[in-house]
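lol ok so funny story. i was supposed to be doing the assay writeup but got distracted and ended up predicting the structure for this chain instead. priorities right. anyway since i did it might as well share w the group, maybe its usefull for someone
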Amino acid sequence: MVDKVFTDTRLAALYDRFSPEGAREDFRFYLPLVMAAFSVLDVGCGTGALLRRARVEGHTGRLCGVDPAPGMLEVARTHDDIEWVLGDASALCGRDDRFDLVVMTGHAFQVLLGDDELRSTLAVLAATLTDTGRFVFETRNPLAREWESWHRRYSGAVSDETGAVVRCVCHVTEPVEGDLVSFTHTFTSDGWAWPEVSHSTLRFLDAPTLATFLSGAGLVVAEQFGDWDRSPLTPTSPEIITVASRA
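and the output, tada:
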């Protein structure tokens, strides 16, 4: 199910305000990869900020974004020089599409909660790669236990397009057990009749488990990093950034 907060265009538009492009370290990692690939598929593209930036920077090839949230894609579709597809990875089934680069940014990979969902998604994405194509994504390192600071990191306030202040409070459901972390974002504004609440769950997989799932889809880990500066993956690294290719 797509969370209501992301089906609402007004709230989807706030996503880029709470996560402004200039503050996103992942863009500095992904953008050169996108610019070097002729055809790019962004799965879980959100408002399409990465692909839009690539077009502004001069990318002349094919750019395609896929996202299951109508509100997010409505924001993205204000830019009609990029192909936008409503749905999850299954929306790509039956399409004779091949891409030089497939990316999942913004920790979108972590919304794949079940083993079957993960396997089927990876199978679809592997099938969309050209023979020399790469699948690049990131997932947070479970050993870093980053969720313990989310109540500070992801709470704050921004102004919407009218100048009204919108506040967000992040709350993680405790205790955290297994590899699933559930949390809420509660949005409020003085002019709103009631708060809007986003309920989310993310899956935290370690590097060996990721490699096993990738292998099952006919993919291998070509490179892996622990942070956006391409530093090596260590037990204390905040991220597991993976570059995968066909086996």
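The chain has two domains: 4-142+203-246, 144-202. The helical segments are 4-7, 9-18, 25-36, 49-56, 70-76, 115-128, 150-153, 207-216.
back to the writeup now i swear
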